[in-house]
Design a protein that fits this description.
Blueprint: H1 2-14, H2 16-51, H3 60-72, E1 76-81, E2 85-91, E3 94-104, E4 123-126, E5 129-132, H4 139-154, E6 161-169, H5 187-193, E7 204-211, E8 218-220, E9 223-226, E10 229-237, E11 241-242, H6 252-270, E12 278-287, E13 293-294, E14 297-306, H7 309-329, E15 333-342, E16 345-347, H8 349-362, E17 367-369, H9 379-385, E18 388-394, H10 420-435
Parallel strand pairs: 3-6, 3-7, 7-18, 8-17
Antiparallel strand pairs: 1-2, 2-6, 4-5, 8-18, 9-16, 10-14, 10-15, 11-13, 12-14
Helix pairs in contact: 2-4, 2-10, 4-10, 6-7, 8-10
The protein binds zinc ion (ZN) (2 copies).
One zinc ion (ZN) binds near residues 137, 139, 209 and 408.
Amino acid sequence: MIRSLLVLTLVIAAGPAARAEADDAALEARVREGAAAVQGKVVQWRRDIHQHPELGDQETRTSRLVADHLRGLGLEVRTGVGGTGVVGVLKGAKPGRTVALRADMDALPVQEPDGLPFASKAKQQYLGKDVPVMHACGHDAHTAMLMGVAEVLAGLKGELPGTVLFVFQPAEEGSSVVTPASGKTWGAARMLEEGAFKDPKPDAVFGLHVMPGALGQISYRAGATTASSDDLQILVTGKQGHGGMPWNTIDPITTSAQIILGLQTVVSRRADLTASPVVVTVGTINGGSRGNVVPETVSMAGTIRTYDDNVREKVVSGVKLAAEKIAEGAGAKADVRITKMYPPTMNDEALAARMRPVLRRAANGRVAEAPPSGATEDFSLFAQAAPGLYVFLGVTPRDQDPATAAPNHNPKFFVDESSLGVGTRTLASLAVAELSPAPDADKTQPHGQPFAPEER
Ligand SMILES: [Zn+2]
Ligand SMILES: [Zn+2]
């Protein structure tokens, strides 16, 4: 008591800045207690959602679970935002900024092996086909953790400065109902179109993804974090005929082979290595019916990945030109369709720098620099609408090597639930810290050299 009186006296003597800092520290301590208290519930929600996975744009059960929970906490709740999306608004009693926290809710068309008592037996339609469904990317954990964060912060409403937006997003992995070629949107894009970030407009947005990594470790990087992704479709049309008399045909098979190899020179000869690495992958090729028939057409599908918007534009136009001209050189025709999907996820440099001490405290000092990921994330769209920070949480059990653990999307992908407490605490602490940034926050230095050598 005497000690706290002394601290109080010192704080009052030191003026408003020190008082604000003491308030923030007290709030962060309450967040830590709250996250610990809600841990059991987070695990129960995660198991429930895991056992009842739903594909992109079909997350009706999950969405209802989330909305009921948020309403029970007294939040203002908007449902049906971008399909099955849910937005919860928590208004703190004190004035402050607005911060958005995002979790994705969708599962994947993957068959879960037996093993867990709450393993999925679910089946759903994926673009018209019956498929098994599994939370193989860990979005069950994301949804459960954000439900936990909502409970923790709702309990602190009286002391909370500003507004927290809880964004539960459908179809991060893509829609199971509409295709990219349909021209329709899904996931983050659709939520933003339908006003997820309007009224109130967030000043910052945070997201977290589970992945193989040291248990409970948070990793992140400033700047480009996940790659851009563009969908590539090529239809090569030649002239059908006899395989023994190819001079009477225009062969789309040899033309396609040339195109596939030619596209790699867009990567190696045209893309600026110093600006961004690039990947062009052709993942499917279909054509022909038998060995002695030159077919009329060959279709191919692929993906284009970069970390830089200018490089992205150049590669997209280079791929189209290369495919069309190679086909033309063979007397064939290439119809190239590139659908822009997601930009790279850019972690805001100043926000990342500001949040570094918060992340260190939330993860008990276990913070590391993440390498850029070749995966893609539609969190990138939220991070274009407000300064964003997207971090990774390591979920590999202590007795396993993260380097050999099954990756996300693998049926054996495993989330050690003892990491969920760190994730809940991290998201809640980030929100609280950014609601009332330190008075000198604008003077924060660029990210510079934030990681000690042992963290790299
Ligand atoms: Zn995924
Ligand atoms: Zn994911």
